[in-house]
Amino acid sequence: MKDAENTAFLQWALPRLGRRWAGYRKVRRLVGKRLDRRLRLLALPDLAAYRTWLEAHPQEWPELDALLGIPISRFWRDRGVFDSVARDVLPALAASACAAGRRTLVAWSAGCASGEEPYTLAILWRERLQRAWPQLELRIVATDGDTQLIERARRGCYAASSVKELPADLRAAAFEKREGGLCVRAELRIGEILCQDLRERMPDGPFDLACLRNVIATYYALPIQREIIDRIAARMRPGSALVLGVHEALPQGVVGLEAWPGARAVYRRTAI
Question: How far apart are alpha carbons 19 and 80 in whole angstroms?
Fold first, then answer.
């Protein structure tokens, strides 16, 4: 498939699915390979024929939408963000919870892919922070709309390349070798890993920390970004933290969230 043909097709199809071309420009060839496989399955000669097929078969649009998920994830991705969360954000959230007499912090990893992000949070809390707040438990809810990724997250086993950015001490403490890979130790396993598409369903909360990194603000059109972030904010406690991707920012029009002082890509939920 020619790149120009692939680009033209995506620029036509993405807005119809509430997605934005800017987020797909760098990953268009990955999507193009998936489209090639879909064309072969449908016995269609090219993307022009697929466009005609979509217009004649509305039930194909969800199939196309499923091809557009970009599950790029690894442990400790964007180290600077996790450094900020460990240094500034989680300690402030823990202190606030203790002052309120609460025994649990609740974190949500939205768009968790294969589980690398929520397990990173679990490892970070247990190995770097829990000693300072032994009375607090960190409860993590992880969600993603892709059933295959969710199953991988529930297994909790990864290739060495997925954990190479994790500091060596955390890597040694968190994993054991089995099943031909590195598996998260039992005491770090996450109990709530749910198959939920953010556009349709969300866990109830309230949350102290919500991670929405490289999911909505990168790949979706602004109206959908605002709608989903507003719904997430409604599930966050006053003073809680929303973490975006390192190259992402809140869309204009979102209220109730302000930049977290000194932290990168983190926003504080203001008083409701």
Answer: 27
